[in-house]
Amino acid sequence: MYVGLKMLKDFMPQSPDALAEDAAALMEKHMLWMLLIVENDKLIGYVRTEDVSAAMPSKMTGLDKHEINYLLSKLTLRKIMRTDITTISPETEIEAAAAKMREKNLAGLAVVDGNAKLIGYINRNVILDVLAEEMGFAEGGSRIVFEVSDRPGVLKHVASLIDDLGYSIISTGTFKHNDCRMVVIRINAENPSSVAAALQKNGYDVVGPEDFRDEWE
C-alpha cells in the first residue's frame, strides 16, 4: 500500500498571510492540532495550536481593546509558522511512513509531489486504519495464529490446507516475537477449530492468548 492511496486531502491548507486569529478559530471549529501553510502551491511550513495560542496577546496585558485588535490584525501565520516540516512522497510505502513517524515522534506527515507541491496529509489515524484493513478486521471471520521457522513454502502449504476445508483467506500478516515468526491468518469462518486442527496435524504450532499470558501478568 502506498501513501498516495490513503492520504487525506481535506486538510485545509492556509496562506502565510492568513491571520493567526482566523487560524485559531478554524482549528477550534474543526478540532485541528495543526495547519499546513502553502504559498504558490508549495508547502513552506506549518503552525500548531500551541504556536498560535502562544502568539496571541494575553488578556492579562495592559493593552486596551483597540491595541489588541491592532496587534491581531498584523499577526499573520508567516510570523509564527515553523519551517522544520517533514514531508513524504505519495509513492512511499505506508509502512515506511509509519516508521518515519515513529522515529521522529510525529503525529503526521505532509505529502508532496516531485515539485514540492502539497497534495495530501497522512496521520496516525490513517496508519491505524490501514493496519485494521490489512488484517481484515472489518470483514469479520476468525483469526488463527501459528508460529513457524523461516522457511519457504509455508504460506502456500497453509493456504492449500485451508482451501481443502472449503474456507477462504481474508488476510495474512507476519510478526516477529522473540526468535519466532508468527503468522496471523484471518479466514471466512466463525469457528476456526477445524482449520486449527489441520494446522496442528501438519506440524504447525497454533497459539492463542493463553500461551503468552505469563508475559503480561
Short description:
With 217 residues, the chain is of the alpha+beta class. The chain has helices at 3-6, 20-30, 49-55, 65-74, 77-80, 94-104, 124-134, 154-164, 193-201, 213-216, and strands spanning 34-39, 42-48, 87-88, 108-112, 118-123, 142-148, 169-177, 180-187, 205-207.
Can you characterise this structure?
The chain is α+β, with helices and mostly antiparallel strands. Helices cover 38% and strands 24% of the residues. It has helices at residues 3-6, 20-30, 49-55, 65-74, 77-80, 94-104, 124-134, 154-164, 193-201, 213-216, and strands at 34-39, 42-48, 87-88, 108-112, 118-123, 142-148, 169-177, 180-187, 205-207. Helix 2 packs across helix 3 (49-55).
Beginning-to-end CA distance, first to last residue: 36 Å
Could you give the count of β-strands?
9
Taken from the alpha-carbon principal axes, the silhouette is elongated
Mean pLDDT: 87
Quaternary form? single chain
β-strand amount: 15-25%
Name the structural class. Answer: alpha+beta
Report on the biggest sheet: 4 strands, antiparallel
What is the ordering of alpha helices and beta strands?
A: HHEEHHHEHEEHEHEEHEH
Q: What is the C-alpha radius of gyration, as a whole number of Å? A: 25 Å
| Tally of helical segments | 10
Lateral arrangement of strands in the main beta sheet: 7-8-6-9
Low-confidence stretches: none
| Residues in helix, % | 25-40%
